[in-house]
């Protein structure tokens, strides 16, 4: 007679829409989520795509605790009490404290929406668009003291389409992250533990982005401006620019085949469907923008 399989005991640390989506997916499996640490709602204003976990906590009767810092020593004893086999951290930009990393028997699994070791670091979805990539991906990895450096246990390529914004691409990678997590949980429950070292010689690191980094340089080619705007539009703070000495936030634009030329940043025309602005190789059409000062042509 075969002995009953013991469910995988998981401590989940989550934030943002992706964290909630992955937790919801994990709760549909045989894994036992013994505890949830979720980002304190008071930090919502500092987090893009913040999401609450209240309904999942209530529906599944999860043992849960909010956190502000994953370096809080009180979290270690709380997680130790739960005796997890593995930890999962999704949607949280903070590094896990060394002491907390050691608590789960197998360690912690992290998720990063790039094809690691490419694109370690911050703002992976905006950077993929800013760089004009045609493909990115999702990686599951074992957490270490460094950011996104641990051995891989799952990875899948994700296409990047010309029409994608950060929100659209992020939603696509969120779905893949949840699928990979379900696959990984199943493998771990069967005793299959993959640890594939990353090739550090091929590693790249993308830096953190700040709202003030969204300034458009009109001398850029139209395609670069287009990629810049779609990368930084909602839910991010947005691209912004100086046009005829006035500031405006730009939420959407497209490349234009208009043949008129002028100094980059010059308004070439005010059209029913947008504002035509000269750039480094022609013009771009701003289709959604907010004027910050008076004096724009009507």
Describe the structure.
- The structure is a single chain.
- 39% of the residues are buried.
- Helix content is 24%, strand content 29%.
- β4 (86-90), α4 and β5 form a beta-alpha-beta unit.
- Strands 3-2-1-4-5-7-8 form a seven-stranded mixed beta sheet, sandwiched between helices. Strands 10-11-14-13-12 form a five-stranded antiparallel beta sheet.
- It has two domains: 9-206, Rossmann fold (3-Layer(aba) Sandwich), CATH 3.40.50; 211-291, Formyl transferase, C-terminal domain (Methionyl-tRNA Fmet Formyltransferase, Chain A, domain 2), CATH 3.10.25.
- α1 (16-26) packs parallel to α6 (166-189).
- The chain has helices spanning 16-26, 54-60, 74-82, 98-101, 124-130, 166-189, 222-232; strands at 9-14, 32-39, 64-67, 86-90, 108-112, 120-121, 135-142, 152-159, 205-206, 239-243, 246-256, 267-271, 274-279, 282-291.
- With 298 residues, the protein is an alpha/beta fold.
How do the strands and helices of this protein lay out in sequence?
Elements: E1 9-14, H1 16-26, E2 32-39, H2 54-60, E3 64-67, H3 74-82, E4 86-90, H4 98-101, E5 108-112, E6 120-121, H5 124-130, E7 135-142, E8 152-159, H6 166-189, E9 205-206, H7 222-232, E10 239-243, E11 246-256, E12 267-271, E13 274-279, E14 282-291
Parallel strand pairs: 1-2, 1-4, 2-3, 4-5, 6-9
Antiparallel strand pairs: 5-7, 7-8, 10-11, 11-14, 12-13, 13-14
């Amino acid at each position: 007679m075969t002995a009953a399989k013991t469910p995988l005991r998981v401590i989940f640390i989550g934030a943002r829409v992706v964290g909630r989506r992955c937790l919801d997916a994990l709760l549909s499996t045989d894994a036992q989520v013994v505890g949830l640490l979720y980002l304190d709602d008071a930090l919502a204003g500092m987090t893009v795509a913040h999401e609450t976990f209240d309904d999942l906590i209530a529906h599944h009767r999860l043992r849960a605790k909010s956190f502000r810092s994953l370096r809080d020593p009180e979290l270690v004893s709380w997680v130790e009490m739960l005796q997890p086999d593995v930890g999962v951290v999704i949607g949280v930009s903070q590094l896990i404290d060394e002491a907390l990393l050691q608590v789960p028997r197998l360690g912690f699994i992290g998720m990063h929406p790039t094809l690691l070791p490419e694109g370690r670091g911050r703002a992976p979805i905006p950077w993929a668009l800013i760089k004009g990539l045609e493909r990115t991906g999702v990686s599951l990895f074992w957490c270490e003291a460094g950011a996104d450096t641990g051995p891989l246990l799952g990875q899948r390529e994700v296409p990047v389409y010309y029409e994608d914004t950060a929100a659209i691409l992020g939603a696509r990678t969120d779905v893949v992250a949840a699928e990979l997590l379900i696959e990984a949980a199943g493998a771990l429950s069967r005793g299959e533990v993959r640890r594939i070292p990353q090739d550090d010689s091929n590693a790249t690191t993308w830096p953190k982005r700040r709202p003030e980094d969204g300034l458009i340089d009109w001398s850029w080619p139209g395609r670069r401006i287009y990629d810049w705007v779609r990368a930084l539009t909602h839910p991010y703070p947005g691209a912004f620019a100086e046009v005829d000495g006035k500031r405006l936030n730009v939420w959407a634009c497209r490349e234009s085949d208009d043949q008129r030329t002028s100094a980059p940043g010059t308004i070439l025309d005010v059209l029913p469907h947008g504002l035509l602005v000269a750039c480094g190789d022609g013009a771009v059409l701003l289709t959604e923008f907010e004027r910050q000062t008076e004096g724009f042509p009507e």
